[in-house]
Design goal:
The chain is α/β, with parallel strands linked by helices. It is built from ten helices and seven strands. α4 crosses α6, α6 crosses α10 and α7 crosses α9.
Length: 223
């Protein structure tokens, strides 16, 4: 996914008026977003991705032909480079947890401020997960209510643990770099190492692991 070109986006939502309003909003930022299509059902979204291969799918959870997560799962299994960001009015912590466990690239509420939406989409263009701090906090709460399984992986360095804990707090790469007095590129290296060691696929799963393992709440120095 290029960081220099606008993101090619598909909007998948069963409410036509909402789709049109969102398209109008997206058109105010042609430098960041290029809406290449819209879909009113999960099936239409999957078919559109097959033929047009967008960078990002903004996917509602409530669809006439089933849960939006089902369509998201199909897209992620067949086209791993297409990122699905849930954009919904559903504030259920359980749905948030399910979406993150599935590996979506973000979970946003439709009540989100427009500027914050654009900031988060900019993060998606950089390979980050679209998750507000408030939703990250809710994710940690949701994870804490689920049984943890045996977690394995190579031993983490102290710095990797520090990065992991900040990711769990919803911090962006620049924020982590500033907090730890390292460069953004170094943060990215630590994240790649975390993914490899823990056998995880994305940043959101790193946050989930931090809570499940207890590392998110342990007192590790950040100096």
């Amino acid at each position: 996914m290029s960081t220099h070109c606008p993101l090619n986006v598909l909007i998948a939502d069963d409410h036509r008026l909402f789709r049109q309003g969102l398209i109008g909003l997206m058109n105010t930022r042609p430098d960041l977003v290029n809406v290449i299509g819209e879909a009113g059902t999960g099936r239409e979204a999957v078919q559109f991705v097959e033929h047009h291969h967008p960078d990002v799918v903004l996917m509602d959870l409530q669809m006439p032909d089933g849960d939006g997560l089902s369509a998201a799962a199909q897209i992620q299994q067949r086209w791993s480079d297409v990122r699905v960001v849930i954009l919904t009015a559903n504030e259920s912590d359980e749905q948030l947890y399910r979406a993150v466990r599935q590996g979506v690239a973000g979970y946003l509420l439709k009540s989100l401020d427009a500027n914050e939406l654009f900031d988060l989409l900019g993060g998606v263009a950089q390979g980050e997960v679209a998750l507000t701090r408030a939703m990250a906090a809710r994710l940690l709460k949701a994870v804490s209510h689920h049984n943890t399984s045996e977690l394995t992986g190579e031993a983490l360095t102290e710095r990797e643990v520090q990065v992991l804990r900040l990711v769990a707090q919803g911090a962006s790469n620049p924020h982590i770099a500033e907090e730890l007095c390292i460069t953004v590129n170094t943060v990215k290296v630590h994240l790649r190492n975390l993914l490899a060691k823990l056998r995880l696929e994305n940043r959101t799963q790193v946050a989930t692991y931090a809570v499940q393992s207890g590392l998110a709440s342990q007192n590790h120095p950040t100096g």
